[in-house]
Predict the 3D structure of the following.
Amino acid sequence: MKKRFIKLVSSTVIATSLTVLLCGCKGKGYFKYEGKIYDDSYNYKNDYGYKYLAQTNEKAAKFYENMFLQMTEFNHKKQDVKEEDCHTLFYEQKFSESALTFDDLYQGYSFLTAFHPEYYWMGYTLEEENDYYALGISRKYAKASERKTFDKKLNSELKKIDKLVSEIEDKYDLIKTISDYIMDNMTYSFDDEGNPSQEHWAHSITGFFDRKTGVCESYAKVFKLLCDRYGIGNLPVTSEDHIWNLVEYENEWYVYDLTYDDDYRNSYVGKTEEAYKDASHEYHKDLFKLPENMAKTPLSFGRIDLKENNEVIYSSHSMDLILDHLNNGNYEIILNSIEGTNTTYFHLSYIDYDYSTLTFKGIQKSGQYVSLVLNDDLELTKDLTLSNFFFEGYIFKKITINDDSTLYLEDITDTGILFVGNVVRND
């Protein structure tokens, strides 16, 4: 596995409280600056960062607003920038004379870079020199012609992606199509010494759209940009030296780390808060907290159908949401295998008592199998039937758990059953 350690980057400090829904919008947003009205030229609208700052740090929010409006104006002017003006184009202030603390300044800047990856030409860092702090434009994009060249590539690629997702109605399929597209067309970028690249493009969307390579920041920013474009709630999340995304699916939040998942597909997307036990994903708890509605179980890559009286009444990729629809009826939960995948795993952490009968049934084609993973102990008051599941070379047609004694499933893990925990029948 590639080692991916990167120094503290511009978007590392994102002090966020994730208690409201982040959403993208394909409609145009309009912004007033110095008496003029500007539209967001790429149609990406995600103002959660600004709204959060407005509630928690008014000075940082004002800095964010001023910088964003200046950048919006600059983006419309399509002007060249003199080399000597690049690093101070948007902001220059003698810190000792500023009303802003460094925390105010850096917090506003961090939100700005994290929530607006479309402004790829923004300076790589908030620069400090002789008590002055400045924010400008990357010298690479000082000339309007350079920005125009990249914009042409960007818009061409976006048209291809628009066409790819144009007929996708299911939100999960949309998220998966976008994330797979990024990983299918991108590789991790190393310098000549085998370390993560420190080039400006490797930390922005230009890494993907211009070179098809970049580090974790590029993966995360491209994913954020596309999620915003197609109306998918999302948030950039950071640890000390890594950045990834949270994605909202049916009002539950999941971990999506495309950088890690690019090596081992379906291993680091659609995950729950448990992912943060990984040393590389130790997020700054003192800087932000996870949403209150983080999912309890990972998203299932195969579709889950809930049947009542032999009719499908609800479909999802979230086991939590399927179980939330149980209401004292006779139910069958259908777990569908993924085409082209040997074994499709579904996770289960709890079962409410709101059912009369309940059967989990695996649906698989030849050479494809379904396995149910028990993430925690289950206590049952009613019968539970498992049907058509794969256990290491054996397909069990039917298993009924209806004994009032404890069944220790870990006692038979050598047969390949992937359950962890106990199932207790307790009438």
